[in-house]
What does this fold into?
Amino acid sequence: MSPVLFLRLAVHRGRIAWHFHESTFGTRRAGPCGVRPDVEALQKRTRAFANAVIQLCDKLPPSRAGFKISDQLLDSSSSTDSNYRAACRARSRKEFIAVLGKVIEECDESLGWLEMLVENRLAPAEEAKALVKEADELVAIFVKSRKTAERNYENELSRERAARRRKSGLSGAKSERFTGDE
It folds into this structure.
């Protein structure tokens, strides 16, 4: 991979300077907007899941149950995809965790509708079972991701609280040490 020329603002001893430097760091991006490869792969996977559900719904029998389940399944599978994309664009860790909760909810709903299709033999068995497996795997991935994000958020809050305690403890110690008549 060829290096890229970056312009970097630097402040040194109160002086502002612009520096050009070459780097290959950050140039191995999978997407046009700099999306991490694993995130982009999961976005593609949720999109493929939604597309496969569309194909499956087109094969459902034209019955009352088929129409009802098809509508619900199309909504939940497409919401899984769109909400995961929204989670990737979250402005904060808290927002990411909240939107990921919606992703899990929608994906689990898709899983439920797919299982209902299999149980009632309304869809081609192999195709539906493959989608049940994919939905189950996606739910597991998103649940694990949310737990990791929650743990990281709690760790971040703990570090911030500890830093505030250290800062207040140090300023309190300084004020006690220097306030007496010495």
